[in-house]
Each structure stands twice: as structure tokens, then as C-alpha cells.
């Protein structure tokens, strides 16, 4: 494997690759979905079984690369002898025309794996690129960007990986690694106090508690209870600024609610520690990457 220009990585330091044991089931499921009951009947009819080809992955627009390991696994699943030579690594800044990888192998395998490889690569590069756009928008502030649990079913691990590649951070990965008490929890529990007290009595000492608040009055109650993180939901900029002053370092502050690259700088300027943005994973536009013969 040859990787050039590692200094072009967008993320803040190296992002550890996900292990193949996590990625292979995703790739196999996607290929099986595409192959259906009879396989790639178009390629089988047109391309000789002994044909060999060389193709190149190229970016067609600028952005941040993510998902290269899934693309490689897709081609290797169809042809274990394929040669996948990378020219860039995940986290690299892409320009239109950037050559990402050269792939050589059985032509049938390359054509059959093409769409699955590109689906993963374009989607995850889109997530990384969207994250990078927000990170750039708030450069120079103390605020960090986080994703949420608003991920596509089955793709959470790789989508959250792509957020890290784009320079963002991850919120909790699931329902089991942190407590996040939201408005419906509070309503059913009968208030903030019983909700927090029940959560604290049930969890281990390493589990943090985050509480969603909509008003400064709720925030005051949350701070009295000593929660670890406060989620400042759908507050206007003046209220966010007042909330940060009220917290005064006693908890981590996280803003959420319809944050865009245009509004992010004003949100970050309020002094919040984090911004939680769900659309990074559930609605990010794909990055256009093609496979050229």
C-alpha cells in the first residue's frame, strides 16, 4: 500500500482505522443485496471470464476522503487477487481530479464491486466533507463538533468514523455508553430531579449524565443536581450566551438544534463547548467520486 501526502489529512491527528472484522459484514451484506439471486448478469454476459482490467478511483469534486477500506474490501470480496494501490488516505483533502487509488484485477470482479465500493466511499466522504465544512466554519473557537445517534441503520460505526476523519468528535455511540435525559424522560419521570436521581442510582461510576434543557430555569435546576453535561436545545444565541455564563465551567455545555455552516460561527461564539449536529450523518450529501477505466 502506498500513501502519499499524509500531511493533507484534515482530521486533528491520525484517526485509527476501523478493524476489518467490523467492516466485512457491512460490505458482504451490501454485495449480497446487489447480487440478488443470479449475480451480475450484465457483466457475466458481456465480459469474458479471463478479462483483466485496470481502473482508477478519482474525485470529481473537492472534499475530504473517507471509507477507503470499505471500497477495498468490496473489490477484494469479488476478487481476492485484486491489487488495490492507494494514492491517498482517509482524511486527505480532495480536489476535482484527485487520483485516490489504482485497482487491477479480474474485470468481472471490478465491475461487480464498483457500485458497492462507490456507495460506501461517496457516502462516507460526504459525511467527512460536511463535518469538515462545519469545523472550518468555527475555526479559532473553543467549540468542537459532535455527531449524534441520528445515523443510518447498520452504518453507525462507519458514519461516526467518517465524522472523526472530517475533524469532528463523536457523541455517545448508543444507548448503553452514556445517560442522556431528554424531555420525554423528564415528563414521564415527573420532573428533572426524579429523572436524574433515578439515573444516578442505576448507573456505574464511570457513566456520565447529560441532561437536555430548554430554558435557563431548567438549567439552574440541572446545575444544582451536578450533572456532567447540559444539552442546550434550540436556544437562541442570546440565551445560549447567558447559559454558558450561568454554567461557568461547572458542566460541559452542548448546543443543538438546526445548526448549519452559516449559523455555526454565531453558536460557537457564545462559548459553548460542543455542537451536536444530526444532519452530518443522516442527511449529508454524497461526495462525487468515480471509477474510470
Automatic annotation (TrEMBL):
Pfam families: QRPTase_C, QRPTase_N. InterPro entries: Aldolase_TIM, NadC, NadC/ModD, Nicotinate_pribotase-like_C, Quinolinate_PRibosylTase_N_sf, Quinolinate_PRibosylTrfase_C, Quinolinate_PRibosylTrfase_N. It catalyses: nicotinate beta-D-ribonucleotide + CO2 + diphosphate = quinolinate + 5-phospho-alpha-D-ribose 1-diphosphate + 2 H(+). The keyword Cell membrane does not apply. Keywords: Glycosyltransferase, Pyridine nucleotide biosynthesis, Transferase. One of its GO terms (molecular function) is nicotinate-nucleotide diphosphorylase (carboxylating) activity. Pathway: Cofactor biosynthesis; NAD(+) biosynthesis; nicotinate D-ribonucleotide from quinolinate: step 1/1. It is an enzyme of class 2 (transferase). Residues 40-125 form the Quinolinate phosphoribosyl transferase N-terminal domain. GO terms for biological process: NAD+ biosynthetic process; quinolinate catabolic process. Its EC number is 2.4.2.19. GO terms for cellular component: cytoplasm. Residues 127-292 form the Quinolinate phosphoribosyl transferase C-terminal domain. Involved in the catabolism of quinolinic acid (QA). Belongs to the NadC/ModD family. Hexamer formed by 3 homodimers. This is Probable nicotinate-nucleotide pyrophosphorylase [carboxylating].
Amino acid at each position: 500500500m502506498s500513501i502519499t501526502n499524509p500531511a493533507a489529512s484534515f482530521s486533528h491527528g491520525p484517526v485509527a482505522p476501523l478493524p476489518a472484522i467490523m467492516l466485512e459484514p457491512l460490505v458482504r451484506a451490501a454485495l449480497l443485496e446487489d447480487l440478488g439471486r443470479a449475480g451480475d448478469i450484465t457483466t457475466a454476459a458481456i465480459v469474458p471470464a479471463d478479462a483483466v482490467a485496470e481502473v482508477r478511483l478519482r474525485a470529481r469534486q473537492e472534499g475530504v476522503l473517507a471509507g477507503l477500506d470499505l471500497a477495498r474490501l468490496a473489490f477484494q470480496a469479488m476478487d481476492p487477487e485484486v491489487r488495490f494501490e492507494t494514492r491517498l488516505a482517509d482524511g486527505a483533502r480532495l480536489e476535482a481530479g484527485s487520483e485516490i487509488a489504482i485497482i487491477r484485477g479480474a474485470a468481472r470482479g471490478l465491475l461487480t464491486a464498483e457500485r458497492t465500493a462507490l456507495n460506501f466511499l461517496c457516502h462516507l466522504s460526504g459525511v467527512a466533507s460536511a463535518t469538515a465544512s462545519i469545523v472550518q466554519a468555527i475555526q479559532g473557537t473553543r467549540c468542537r463538533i459532535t455527531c449524534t445517534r441520528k445515523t443510518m441503520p447498520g452504518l453507525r460505526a462507519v458514519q461516526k468514523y467518517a465524522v472523526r476523519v472530517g475533524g469532528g468528535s463523536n457523541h455517545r455511540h448508543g444507548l448503553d455508553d452514556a445517560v442522556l435525559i431528554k424531555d420525554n424522560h423528564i415528563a414521564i419521570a415527573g420532573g428533572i430531579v426524579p429523572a436524574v436521581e433515578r439515573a444516578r442510582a442505576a448507573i456505574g461510576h464511570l457513566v456520565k449524565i447529560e441532561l437536555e434543557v430548554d430554558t435557563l430555569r431548567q438549567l439552574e435546576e440541572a446545575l444544582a443536581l451536578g450533572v456532567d453535561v447540559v444539552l442546550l436545545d434550540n436556544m437562541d444565541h442570546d440565551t445560549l450566551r447567558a447559559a454558558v455564563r450561568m454554567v461557568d465551567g461547572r458542566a460541559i455545555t452542548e448546543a443543538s438544534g438546526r445548526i448549519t455552516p452559516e449559523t455555526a460561527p454565531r453558536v460557537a461564539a457564545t462559548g459553548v463547548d460542543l455542537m451536536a449536529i444530526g444532519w452530518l450523518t443522516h442527511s449529508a450529501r454524497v461526495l462525487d467520486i468515480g471509477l474510470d477505466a
